[in-house]
Amino acid sequence: MTSISTINVPFHGDSLYVVNYNGQPYVPMKPIVEGMGMDWASQFTKLKQRFKSTIAEITMVAEDGKSRNMLCIALRKLSGWLHTISPNKVKPEIRDKVIRYQEECDDVLYEYWTTGEVKKKPNFRQSTAKELIPLRQTAERLIAHGVGNIYPDIWKHVHAEFGVQHINELLPEQIPLAISYLDALEGEYLPQQKAQLEPKLDINYPLTWYPDNFPYVDMCFYKQGQLRITRSVLVETRSPSREIFSKLKVSGYDVTAAEAEIASLRHFVSELSWAIDSIGGFVQMRDRISKTFTA
């Protein structure tokens, strides 16, 4: 393979590199991994397994003038690899350095790729790693709760909201504001999550429910687009209203008042039906007696 020249990028005392590979910026990974203080062998395996489509072995000229094959990743994918590392799971002595790489490394390399330098930022009093702990804990909580599914790169949203490139550029007084901003993102996410988790109520009782459920019983007829139900059907058969109440109760709704109302109405109709039948019986008996005495 033809050797390729590299851009040397100083980064907090470490030497990183950007390589022009087929017109695209690629980054040798071993200097980054070792610069963070981590084990190269395990990260080499992870890169081979999880980033197979975005890595390449590139022959580079090292500082000693010799050519060596280096495993490189596309710069646009570097942030994705950086955030596979959890700062809480690394050794305490390298935690701050890992965080610094996660927050700054890809941006610094991109600036060198595009401009050949990193512009100095105004010298404000930036937040310390200790001051940023509550903000990091908030972000980790959101990611653990699934907010990352909607906002895949939470830190990019914070950067854009406060006009910074890294969270350590936040002023100490901005940290509570950033925490409130993340809490607001969680507030937007939770209703969506609740809507996804809540089962949809299966409450569909169209006019055809009666003839569909009782096809062989003369119970109802249509008149002017409405369904008229006979007394016997209303009193003696299944009730769609009661089925609806049952489903609502299973879903946690209190519908006892509505249940009581329908039960009272059905009881009243039942009593009225009995009275009408009794009156009909007495009328028939009276007519028979009347015919007997007039015959």
Automatic annotation (TrEMBL):
Q: Supply the Pfam families for this chain.
A: P22_AR_N
Question: What's the superkingdom here?
Answer: Bacteria
Which InterPro entries does the protein's record reference? Antirepressor_Ant_N
Q: Which residues form the Antirepressor protein ant N-terminal domain?
A: 8-118
* Stated name of the protein: Antirepressor protein ant N-terminal domain-containing protein
